[in-house]
Structure formats: C-alpha cells, structure tokens
Amino acid sequence: MDENSQKIHYEMIHDDYAKHYYDPTSMEFRDKFMYKYLFKGLDLNNKKVADLASGSGYNSLALMKYFPKVQVFGFDISKKACQDYKKTVGRPAYEIDLTKKTDLKEEYDCAMIIGGLHHCVSDLEATFENISAILKPGGSLLMIEPNKNYFLEPLRKLWYKLDKYFEENTEEALDHDSLLFKQAQHFNVEKIFYLGGPAYFLIYNSLLFRLPIRIKKVVAPILLLLEKIYNLCPGKVMFPYFIAQWKKK
Questions:
Q1: pLDDT tens, residue by residue, 84-131
Q2: Which residues have C-beta within 8 Å of that of residue 39, sequence separation ≥ 6?
Q3: Sign of CA dihedral 90, 21, 127, 12
Q4: Domains and CATH numbers, the chain
C-alpha cells in the first residue's frame, strides 16, 4: 500500500468534500447533533486545542464560537487543507501524518479529531502515541467517528469498496470499546454518545449520496426533526457514529 495513499486521496476530493460537508445545512447538523455533545461539560476558554485532521478549519471556527478565548491550532495530512485552514481560521496549521512518528514539541490541553481516526487504521497504535505525546496529563481527547457496531456495517464496507470518495485500504469504521481497551493505559472515557439517523446520511453525508446542496436546503427541516426523534433510540447498534470524550491519565 502506498504510504501516502490517504493524503493523495484526500487532496483529490478536497474541493468536493469542503463544498458538501461545510455548507450551511451541514454546519447546522454539526451544531445540533455533534458539537453540543462533543463539547458537553467542557470549558476550553484559555486552553490550547489541537484540531487534528483539521481540514479547511470549519470545526475550529465552531470551537471558537463555543469558546471565544480558545487557542486553536490545525493539523492535517494535506498541504492544501493546511493552506485553507490558515485562510479560513486565521490560525497556524501544520502538515503531519498522524500514523507516522512525529517530533512535535508543544503540549496541548485538548485534542479533537472529527472523522479523522478512521482514516488512520493503517497504524492506530502510532496515531494514539502521537496524540498522547502532545496532550498534557489530564488533557481531553474529543472524537467523532463512524461506529463499527452499526447494524448496517456490512453495507458500509461494501460502499467503501465501490465508491470513489472512499480509500478502502486506509479507512474503516471503529469500535469505541475496543479502541478504549487498547488505549486504557493512557486514557479514561469521560462521555460516550451513539447517534445518527436520516439527516446524518442525507444532510451531513450528502456528498456520498450525491444530494445537490440546493435540495439539502429544502429537505433539511424535516430531516433534522426526524434526526432528533431517531436519536432517542436506545443502545448503539442503531447508530452510525459515536462521539466520545476521553481524558489522558
């Protein structure tokens, strides 16, 4: 496997990805069904936060709205994404591959990674070593990732094989409990949420369903309402993604 295949793949789809995942309806979804859970109970004002797999920086912008005094820094495998991050956020961004040993010297109070860990499955051990190395003791690790325990996981695996917007060899859904077990020597879980209904697919993942943005605007109100209802389901097998807060020991 080409060690840069994930980087090449992301830079190839970067423009399409940014257009669909950060439009106003997608950002409304993120605010209602991602950020409010990801930041629940936290005060990151005056804290240093590493936004890992930061992309163009829209998650950092949301973080800054929640915590106006936060100091946020972007990290991404894509040079193009880092350039966009600096323009969008007005903050530093650094080009790194989380699956390779890094020599970052700075320490951060918090690291967040939204949809990035499942792109690092070629070496999750090295990825977590890098994340642990930049976090201060007691620092928070915040993540949003696809849930491997989802009952439609076999269909998702097939989709990974067939759709050009996936890089099959370097990404797969994750089992939260398995991740935590393997990282238990470094982290404790603080909060875990399992979520995701129709709006997750048709609003948040509109690129994968080829749903035009103009149509998203029309169907968003009803889909966001259905999402709120669907999230009342119990357990984790009904949900395609999880949101977790971990704390470094």
A1: 999 999 999 999 999 998 888 889 999 999 999 998 988 999 999 999
A2: 63, 66, 67, 142
A3: negative
A4: 5-15+32-196+239-248 (3.40.50.150)
Contact indicator for 40, 102 with CB cutoff of 8 Å: no
pLDDT for the residue 52: 98
Pairing label, strands 241-248, 187-195: antiparallel
Predicted model pTM: 0.89
- Which are the contacts of 113, defined by CB distance < 8 A and separation ≥ 6? 51, 52, 53, 131, 141, 142, 143, 144
Q: What is the pLDDT of residue 103?
A: 81
- Please state, in angstroms and as integers, the Cα–Cα distance from residue 191 to each residue in 40, 82, 142, 232, following that order: 9, 30, 10, 17
Across the range 137-143, mean pLDDT stands at: 98
CA distances, 248 to each of 19, 92, 135, 180, 215 (Å): 34, 24, 7, 11, 42
Question: CA–CA separation, 150 vs 147, rounded Å?
Answer: 6
